[in-house]
Amino acid sequence: MDDQLLGFLLNALDRDEMAQVELLLARDPALHGRLLALRRLLDPLAEDGNDCAYDPGLVESTLLRLPAPEVPIAPRPSARRNFGNSSPWRKADVLIAASLMLCVFGVGIPWLHIQRMQTVGFSNVVKVNECKENLRQFSEALHVYTDQNGRRYPTVKPPRVAAGLVAPLLKDAGLSVYAEMAQCPSPGLSPPDFKPVHEVLAMDEAAYHAYMKTLNNTYAYSLGFEEGNRVVGWRRDENLPMSQIPIMADCPPTDVLSGANSPSHGGKGQNVLFMDGHVEFKTERKAGFDLDDIYLNKHGKVGAGINWKDTVLASGLALPWEREEAFLIRFSQRRGFPT
Does the model's pTM come out above 0.85? Predict the structure, then answer.
Protein backbone atom coordinates (compact mmCIF):
# COMPACT_ATOMS: atom_id res chain seq x y z
CA MET A 1 0.00 0.00 0.00
CA ASP A 2 2.99 2.31 0.57
CA ASP A 3 3.50 2.73 -3.19
CA GLN A 4 -0.05 4.08 -3.62
CA LEU A 5 0.33 6.41 -0.60
CA LEU A 6 3.68 7.63 -1.94
CA GLY A 7 2.12 8.30 -5.34
CA PHE A 8 -0.75 10.10 -3.58
CA LEU A 9 1.66 12.40 -1.71
CA LEU A 10 3.69 13.11 -4.85
CA ASN A 11 0.53 13.65 -6.94
CA ALA A 12 1.81 10.93 -9.30
CA LEU A 13 -1.47 8.98 -9.63
CA ASP A 14 -4.19 9.52 -12.20
CA ARG A 15 -7.60 10.88 -11.22
CA ASP A 16 -9.24 7.49 -10.64
CA GLU A 17 -6.33 6.21 -8.56
CA MET A 18 -6.33 9.38 -6.41
CA ALA A 19 -10.05 8.90 -5.80
CA GLN A 20 -9.53 5.26 -4.82
CA VAL A 21 -6.77 6.16 -2.32
CA GLU A 22 -8.98 8.90 -0.82
CA LEU A 23 -11.75 6.30 -0.46
CA LEU A 24 -9.40 3.85 1.28
CA LEU A 25 -8.19 6.61 3.63
CA ALA A 26 -11.79 7.41 4.52
CA ARG A 27 -12.52 3.75 5.27
CA ASP A 28 -9.35 2.92 7.21
CA PRO A 29 -8.18 5.46 9.83
CA ALA A 30 -4.99 3.44 10.31
CA LEU A 31 -3.85 4.48 6.84
CA HIS A 32 -3.80 8.13 7.96
CA GLY A 33 -0.97 7.34 10.36
CA ARG A 34 0.99 5.66 7.61
CA LEU A 35 0.35 8.62 5.30
CA LEU A 36 1.65 11.05 7.92
CA ALA A 37 4.75 8.91 8.46
CA LEU A 38 5.54 8.95 4.74
CA ARG A 39 4.93 12.70 4.62
CA ARG A 40 7.48 13.22 7.42
CA LEU A 41 10.03 11.21 5.45
CA LEU A 42 9.49 13.47 2.46
CA ASP A 43 9.76 16.75 4.43
CA PRO A 44 13.62 16.96 4.16
CA LEU A 45 13.29 16.72 0.38
CA ALA A 46 10.93 19.68 0.36
CA GLU A 47 13.49 21.81 2.22
CA ASP A 48 16.02 21.19 -0.55
CA GLY A 49 13.66 22.84 -2.99
CA ASN A 50 13.79 26.27 -1.29
CA ASP A 51 15.28 28.98 -3.48
CA CYS A 52 18.40 30.68 -2.18
CA ALA A 53 19.52 34.11 -3.41
CA TYR A 54 23.21 34.36 -4.31
CA ASP A 55 25.64 36.72 -6.04
CA PRO A 56 26.54 35.36 -9.53
CA GLY A 57 30.01 36.95 -9.35
CA LEU A 58 30.84 35.70 -5.88
CA VAL A 59 32.94 32.75 -7.06
CA GLU A 60 35.12 34.79 -9.44
CA SER A 61 35.73 37.59 -6.92
CA THR A 62 36.70 35.10 -4.23
CA LEU A 63 39.17 33.26 -6.48
CA LEU A 64 40.88 36.56 -7.42
CA ARG A 65 41.61 37.26 -3.73
CA LEU A 66 43.33 33.91 -3.17
CA PRO A 67 47.16 33.64 -3.56
CA ALA A 68 48.45 31.58 -6.44
CA PRO A 69 48.87 27.99 -5.27
CA GLU A 70 52.26 26.32 -5.23
CA VAL A 71 52.29 23.10 -7.20
CA PRO A 72 54.15 20.43 -5.17
CA ILE A 73 56.59 18.10 -6.82
CA ALA A 74 55.21 14.58 -6.95
CA PRO A 75 57.29 12.10 -4.92
CA ARG A 76 59.09 9.30 -6.70
CA PRO A 77 57.06 6.12 -6.63
CA SER A 78 58.30 3.55 -4.21
CA ALA A 79 59.59 0.33 -5.62
CA ARG A 80 57.55 -1.57 -3.04
CA ARG A 81 53.83 -0.91 -2.48
CA ASN A 82 51.89 -2.20 0.44
CA PHE A 83 48.57 -2.98 -1.18
CA GLY A 84 47.26 -4.88 1.83
CA ASN A 85 46.94 -1.96 4.25
CA SER A 86 46.22 1.00 1.94
CA SER A 87 42.84 1.92 0.50
CA PRO A 88 41.70 4.86 -1.66
CA TRP A 89 38.45 4.98 0.39
CA ARG A 90 38.28 7.09 3.52
CA LYS A 91 35.77 6.28 6.24
CA ALA A 92 33.75 9.37 5.29
CA ASP A 93 33.63 8.19 1.66
CA VAL A 94 32.27 4.82 2.73
CA LEU A 95 29.56 6.44 4.87
CA ILE A 96 28.50 8.75 2.02
CA ALA A 97 28.37 5.84 -0.45
CA ALA A 98 26.29 3.75 1.97
CA SER A 99 23.86 6.64 2.51
CA LEU A 100 23.45 7.11 -1.23
CA MET A 101 22.76 3.39 -1.71
CA LEU A 102 20.10 3.46 1.01
CA CYS A 103 18.41 6.42 -0.68
CA VAL A 104 18.52 4.71 -4.08
CA PHE A 105 17.03 1.48 -2.76
CA GLY A 106 14.46 3.29 -0.63
CA VAL A 107 13.13 5.30 -3.57
CA GLY A 108 13.98 2.85 -6.34
CA ILE A 109 12.16 -0.25 -5.09
CA PRO A 110 8.70 1.40 -4.94
CA TRP A 111 9.43 3.03 -8.31
CA LEU A 112 10.32 -0.33 -9.84
CA HIS A 113 7.13 -1.83 -8.39
CA ILE A 114 5.03 0.94 -9.98
CA GLN A 115 6.84 0.51 -13.29
CA ARG A 116 6.19 -3.24 -13.20
CA MET A 117 2.49 -2.72 -12.56
CA GLN A 118 2.31 -0.26 -15.45
CA THR A 119 4.22 -2.64 -17.73
CA VAL A 120 1.65 -5.42 -17.30
CA GLY A 121 -1.04 -2.95 -18.27
CA PHE A 122 -2.95 -2.12 -15.10
CA SER A 123 -4.88 1.12 -15.35
CA ASN A 124 -5.91 0.95 -11.70
CA VAL A 125 -3.43 -0.58 -9.26
CA VAL A 126 -5.84 -0.05 -6.36
CA LYS A 127 -8.39 -2.43 -7.88
CA VAL A 128 -5.75 -5.11 -8.32
CA ASN A 129 -4.84 -4.85 -4.65
CA GLU A 130 -8.52 -4.89 -3.66
CA CYS A 131 -8.89 -8.11 -5.65
CA LYS A 132 -5.97 -9.61 -3.72
CA GLU A 133 -7.58 -8.53 -0.46
CA ASN A 134 -10.85 -10.23 -1.48
CA LEU A 135 -9.00 -13.50 -2.05
CA ARG A 136 -7.19 -13.17 1.30
CA GLN A 137 -10.56 -12.77 3.02
CA PHE A 138 -11.80 -15.85 1.17
CA SER A 139 -8.74 -17.66 2.52
CA GLU A 140 -9.67 -16.72 6.09
CA ALA A 141 -13.27 -17.89 5.56
CA LEU A 142 -12.10 -21.16 3.99
CA HIS A 143 -9.74 -21.77 6.92
CA VAL A 144 -12.57 -21.34 9.45
CA TYR A 145 -14.83 -23.54 7.31
CA THR A 146 -12.27 -26.37 7.44
CA ASP A 147 -12.07 -26.01 11.23
CA GLN A 148 -15.84 -26.51 11.40
CA ASN A 149 -16.01 -29.38 8.89
CA GLY A 150 -13.33 -31.90 9.74
CA ARG A 151 -10.61 -29.91 7.95
CA ARG A 152 -12.45 -30.34 4.62
CA TYR A 153 -12.92 -27.49 2.14
CA PRO A 154 -16.28 -26.94 0.40
CA THR A 155 -16.62 -29.64 -2.24
CA VAL A 156 -18.11 -29.26 -5.72
CA LYS A 157 -20.66 -32.09 -6.02
CA PRO A 158 -22.76 -32.79 -9.14
CA PRO A 159 -25.39 -32.18 -10.21
CA ARG A 160 -26.19 -28.95 -8.30
CA VAL A 161 -23.25 -27.89 -6.12
CA ALA A 162 -21.20 -26.25 -8.89
CA ALA A 163 -18.04 -24.15 -8.62
CA GLY A 164 -19.95 -20.86 -8.52
CA LEU A 165 -21.67 -21.77 -5.24
CA VAL A 166 -18.53 -21.54 -3.10
CA ALA A 167 -19.40 -18.06 -1.74
CA PRO A 168 -23.03 -18.98 -0.84
CA LEU A 169 -21.74 -22.19 0.81
CA LEU A 170 -19.38 -20.17 3.02
CA LYS A 171 -22.07 -17.63 3.85
CA ASP A 172 -24.50 -20.44 4.74
CA ALA A 173 -21.88 -21.70 7.20
CA GLY A 174 -22.18 -18.37 9.08
CA LEU A 175 -18.89 -16.95 7.84
CA SER A 176 -18.16 -13.33 6.94
CA VAL A 177 -18.65 -13.51 3.19
CA TYR A 178 -20.40 -10.45 1.79
CA ALA A 179 -21.57 -9.81 -1.75
CA GLU A 180 -18.94 -7.15 -2.65
CA MET A 181 -16.15 -9.48 -1.50
CA ALA A 182 -17.39 -12.21 -3.88
CA GLN A 183 -16.74 -10.02 -6.93
CA CYS A 184 -13.42 -8.90 -8.35
CA PRO A 185 -13.61 -5.07 -8.37
CA SER A 186 -11.98 -4.69 -11.80
CA PRO A 187 -14.95 -5.66 -14.05
CA GLY A 188 -17.26 -3.29 -12.14
CA LEU A 189 -20.16 -5.77 -11.86
CA SER A 190 -23.07 -5.39 -9.47
CA PRO A 191 -22.87 -7.44 -6.24
CA PRO A 192 -24.76 -10.76 -6.40
CA ASP A 193 -27.79 -11.72 -4.33
CA PHE A 194 -26.87 -14.66 -2.11
CA LYS A 195 -29.69 -17.12 -1.50
CA PRO A 196 -29.58 -19.93 1.07
CA VAL A 197 -28.03 -23.00 -0.51
CA HIS A 198 -31.04 -25.21 0.32
CA GLU A 199 -33.23 -22.85 -1.72
CA VAL A 200 -30.84 -23.04 -4.65
CA LEU A 201 -30.80 -26.83 -4.53
CA ALA A 202 -34.61 -26.90 -4.50
CA MET A 203 -34.98 -24.78 -7.67
CA ASP A 204 -36.08 -26.32 -10.96
CA GLU A 205 -33.38 -26.52 -13.60
CA ALA A 206 -34.37 -23.34 -15.46
CA ALA A 207 -34.49 -21.26 -12.25
CA TYR A 208 -31.23 -22.77 -11.03
CA HIS A 209 -29.47 -21.96 -14.29
CA ALA A 210 -30.82 -18.38 -14.26
CA TYR A 211 -29.81 -17.84 -10.62
CA MET A 212 -26.26 -19.10 -11.16
CA LYS A 213 -25.82 -16.51 -13.90
CA THR A 214 -26.69 -13.72 -11.43
CA LEU A 215 -23.78 -14.69 -9.17
CA ASN A 216 -21.43 -13.06 -11.75
CA ASN A 217 -18.72 -15.56 -10.73
CA THR A 218 -15.61 -13.42 -11.17
CA TYR A 219 -13.67 -15.90 -9.03
CA ALA A 220 -12.84 -19.55 -9.75
CA TYR A 221 -12.74 -22.38 -7.19
CA SER A 222 -11.13 -25.82 -7.13
CA LEU A 223 -13.04 -28.70 -8.76
CA GLY A 224 -11.14 -31.28 -6.72
CA PHE A 225 -9.22 -34.27 -8.10
CA GLU A 226 -9.57 -37.93 -8.95
CA GLU A 227 -8.65 -40.47 -6.31
CA GLY A 228 -9.22 -44.05 -7.35
CA ASN A 229 -12.64 -44.27 -8.96
CA ARG A 230 -14.07 -41.15 -7.37
CA VAL A 231 -13.62 -37.39 -7.28
CA VAL A 232 -12.72 -35.85 -3.92
CA GLY A 233 -12.46 -32.31 -2.61
CA TRP A 234 -9.53 -30.82 -0.76
CA ARG A 235 -8.75 -31.41 2.90
CA ARG A 236 -6.49 -29.04 4.82
CA ASP A 237 -3.32 -30.89 5.65
CA GLU A 238 -0.18 -29.16 6.93
CA ASN A 239 1.87 -32.10 5.62
CA LEU A 240 1.01 -30.99 2.08
CA PRO A 241 3.05 -28.24 0.37
CA MET A 242 0.11 -25.84 0.67
CA SER A 243 2.11 -22.90 -0.70
CA GLN A 244 2.07 -24.69 -4.09
CA ILE A 245 -1.61 -25.68 -4.21
CA PRO A 246 -3.95 -23.07 -5.78
CA ILE A 247 -7.45 -23.09 -4.28
CA MET A 248 -9.01 -19.97 -5.88
CA ALA A 249 -8.21 -17.39 -8.59
CA ASP A 250 -9.75 -14.82 -10.89
CA CYS A 251 -12.29 -16.44 -13.19
CA PRO A 252 -11.19 -18.11 -16.46
CA PRO A 253 -11.99 -16.57 -19.85
CA THR A 254 -15.26 -17.45 -21.59
CA ASP A 255 -13.33 -19.49 -24.14
CA VAL A 256 -11.25 -21.37 -21.61
CA LEU A 257 -9.65 -23.57 -24.30
CA SER A 258 -8.10 -20.50 -25.96
CA GLY A 259 -5.32 -20.32 -23.38
CA ALA A 260 -6.10 -16.66 -22.66
CA ASN A 261 -5.74 -15.13 -19.20
CA SER A 262 -8.65 -14.14 -16.99
CA PRO A 263 -10.59 -11.13 -18.30
CA SER A 264 -10.74 -9.61 -14.81
CA HIS A 265 -7.54 -7.56 -15.21
CA GLY A 266 -7.57 -6.73 -18.89
CA GLY A 267 -6.31 -10.16 -19.91
CA LYS A 268 -2.85 -9.41 -18.50
CA GLY A 269 -2.94 -12.06 -15.79
CA GLN A 270 -4.79 -13.31 -12.74
CA ASN A 271 -4.49 -13.24 -8.96
CA VAL A 272 -4.12 -16.77 -7.56
CA LEU A 273 -4.87 -17.75 -3.94
CA PHE A 274 -2.82 -20.65 -2.59
CA MET A 275 -3.90 -22.98 0.19
CA ASP A 276 -1.46 -21.46 2.70
CA GLY A 277 -3.22 -18.07 2.32
CA HIS A 278 -0.78 -16.11 0.16
CA VAL A 279 -1.85 -14.51 -3.14
CA GLU A 280 0.30 -14.12 -6.26
CA PHE A 281 -0.33 -12.33 -9.53
CA LYS A 282 0.48 -14.61 -12.45
CA THR A 283 1.01 -13.19 -15.93
CA GLU A 284 0.43 -16.72 -17.27
CA ARG A 285 -2.29 -19.15 -16.19
CA LYS A 286 0.24 -21.59 -14.77
CA ALA A 287 0.85 -22.44 -11.14
CA GLY A 288 1.36 -25.38 -8.81
CA PHE A 289 3.88 -28.20 -8.89
CA ASP A 290 4.28 -28.62 -12.63
CA LEU A 291 3.31 -25.03 -13.51
CA ASP A 292 0.33 -26.49 -15.36
CA ASP A 293 -2.78 -24.68 -16.59
CA ILE A 294 -4.89 -23.71 -13.57
CA TYR A 295 -8.11 -23.72 -15.66
CA LEU A 296 -7.70 -27.10 -17.41
CA ASN A 297 -6.71 -30.55 -16.19
CA LYS A 298 -3.94 -32.68 -17.68
CA HIS A 299 -6.42 -33.90 -20.31
CA GLY A 300 -7.00 -30.31 -21.45
CA LYS A 301 -10.58 -30.24 -20.08
CA VAL A 302 -12.57 -28.35 -17.45
CA GLY A 303 -12.97 -31.05 -14.82
CA ALA A 304 -11.38 -32.63 -11.78
CA GLY A 305 -7.61 -32.96 -11.76
CA ILE A 306 -6.25 -36.38 -12.64
CA ASN A 307 -4.46 -36.45 -9.27
CA TRP A 308 -3.87 -34.15 -6.30
CA LYS A 309 -1.04 -32.34 -8.10
CA ASP A 310 -3.31 -31.40 -11.03
CA THR A 311 -4.99 -28.07 -10.21
CA VAL A 312 -8.25 -27.10 -11.91
CA LEU A 313 -10.09 -23.89 -10.91
CA ALA A 314 -13.48 -23.09 -12.44
CA SER A 315 -16.50 -20.80 -11.97
CA GLY A 316 -20.22 -20.72 -12.65
CA LEU A 317 -21.88 -24.04 -13.48
CA ALA A 318 -18.61 -25.95 -13.91
CA LEU A 319 -18.61 -29.48 -12.47
CA PRO A 320 -15.71 -31.81 -11.70
CA TRP A 321 -16.59 -34.59 -14.14
CA GLU A 322 -17.72 -32.96 -17.41
CA ARG A 323 -18.04 -29.67 -19.23
CA GLU A 324 -20.98 -27.59 -18.00
CA GLU A 325 -22.51 -27.34 -21.48
CA ALA A 326 -22.65 -31.12 -21.92
CA PHE A 327 -24.16 -31.56 -18.47
CA LEU A 328 -26.87 -28.93 -18.99
CA ILE A 329 -27.89 -30.28 -22.40
CA ARG A 330 -28.09 -33.87 -21.17
CA PHE A 331 -29.88 -32.95 -17.95
CA SER A 332 -32.35 -30.63 -19.72
CA GLN A 333 -33.20 -33.25 -22.35
CA ARG A 334 -33.76 -35.85 -19.64
CA ARG A 335 -36.09 -33.54 -17.70
CA GLY A 336 -37.83 -32.08 -20.75
CA PHE A 337 -36.49 -28.52 -20.41
CA PRO A 338 -35.75 -26.55 -23.60
CA THR A 339 -32.05 -26.37 -24.52
Answer: no
